[in-house]
Amino acid sequence: QGQLLESGGGSVQIGDSLRLSCAGSGRTLNTYTVGWFRQAPGKEREFAAAISGSGDFTYYGDFVKGRFTLSRDDAKNTAYLQMTNLTPEDTATYFCALRESWRPAPVTGYFIWGQGTQVSVSF
């Protein structure tokens, strides 16, 4: 079936940076689209970013505004989401997920999800 394990979340202050990791097991990440989503308490899951299997394509949610950068280390079978200039509005649980096709934004179609990593940004 395969699994994803997110890490790298934490409690930071406004303007700080974090790098989230998404480690794959049982699935080779560079054969799938890897998406990142976030969900704040009481809100729907929101698309943040995605990278294609080839790595040639990336796509970011509107709220990102150039602050996040995707990357992947195929030797480690791990994808990364570098987040900079964080604000309290970025406080949420962040998830990574896999899908077969390059349709990055819709939640539907992602068939493997990690358990999430918490990001908290304070003033």
Q: What would your notes on this structure say?
A:
The chain has about 120 residues and is mainly beta. The chain is built from no helices and 11 strands. Strands 2, 4, 5, 6, 9, 10 and 11 form a 7-stranded mixed sheet that branches. A 4-stranded antiparallel sheet has the order 1-3-8-7, with no helix packed on it. The chain is globular.
Topology:
Layout: E1 3-7, E2 10-13, E3 18-25, E4 33-39, E5 46-51, E6 58-60, E7 68-73, E8 78-83, E9 92-99, E10 112-113, E11 117-122
Parallel strand pairs: 2-11
Antiparallel strand pairs: 1-3, 3-8, 4-5, 4-9, 5-6, 7-8, 9-10, 9-11
- Residue windows where pLDDT falls under 50 for at least 5 positions: none
Alpha-carbon Rg, integer: 13 Å
User: Helix count, per DSSP?
Assistant: 0
Largest sheet: 7 strands, mixed
Residues in helices, as a percent range: under 10%
Mean pLDDT: 97
Order of helices and strands: EEEEEEEEEEE
Category by helix and strand content:
mainly beta
Oligomer: single chain
Through-space gap between termini:
41 Å
How would the global form be characterised?
A: globular
How much strand content do the residues show?
over 45%
Count of individual beta strands: 11
Keywords, separated by commas or semicolons:
7-stranded mixed beta sheet; 123 residues; 4-stranded antiparallel beta sheet; mainly beta; 0% helix
Task: Give a brief description.
About 0% of the residues lie in helices and about 50% in strands. It has no helices and eleven strands.
